[in-house]
Design brief:
about 170 residues; single chain; globular; mainly alpha
């Protein structure tokens, strides 16, 4: 469930970032965070009966996610700084989307979550699309596509990872 919480939370960020400065009404921004909160609520209810991961598996997964997120964060900071200092601030959001997409590759391989290959490819392509598009659409398309892809990944994981409830047998 933590993966769904993180993805849904970041999807809300991408939604707002994509709409920031767009011609759409400001109230439209709250739609993304509402979708994310609903997904987190559904995940919590659906997966509440799942047994916890074995401690060694949870520790390994935590290390993998930590390294991937740490590398992603450092790369985002470096790229955003370079683009900003070279007068290309308008390319930051698409560049960050590419980095976010690529960060799903080690997660797919090391955590053996196959949907992350698709997530990696599509979010990376959303970032590339943002680099190609003209300025008025760049952040809108990059942000909304990335948010939508993160939500779809959450929904897919929720639909395929049914909780494994412990069934008590009558004696």
């Amino acid at each position: 469930m933590p993966a769904i919480v993180f993805m849904a939370g970041f999807a809300a960020f991408w939604w707002v970032a994509g709409l920031w400065g767009s011609p759409l009404p400001t109230w439209f921004m709250v739609g993304g965070p509402i979708i994310s909160v609903l997904l987190i609520f559904v995940a919590r209810r659906r997966l509440s009966g799942a047994p916890p991961r074995p401690p060694e598996e949870a520790k390994r997964a935590g290390r993998i996610v930590g390294w991937a997120a740490g590398g992603e964060g450092i790369l985002i900071a470096v790229v955003a700084n370079l683009l900003t200092h070279n007068g290309q601030r308008e390319l930051v959001l698409p560049a960050v989307a590419i980095i976010v997409g690529l960060h799903f590759l080690p997660l797919a391989v090391l955590l053996k979550v196959r949907i992350y290959y698709v997530t990696a490819l599509l979010i990376t392509l959303a970032g590339v699309a943002g680099l190609i598009l003209d300025a008025p659409l760049r952040n809108l398309v990059t942000g909304l596509l990335t948010a939508g892809l993160l939500w779809l990944t959450c929904v897919y994981r929720l639909s395929t990872e049914a909780p494994k409830r412990v069934v008590e047998q009558a004696a």
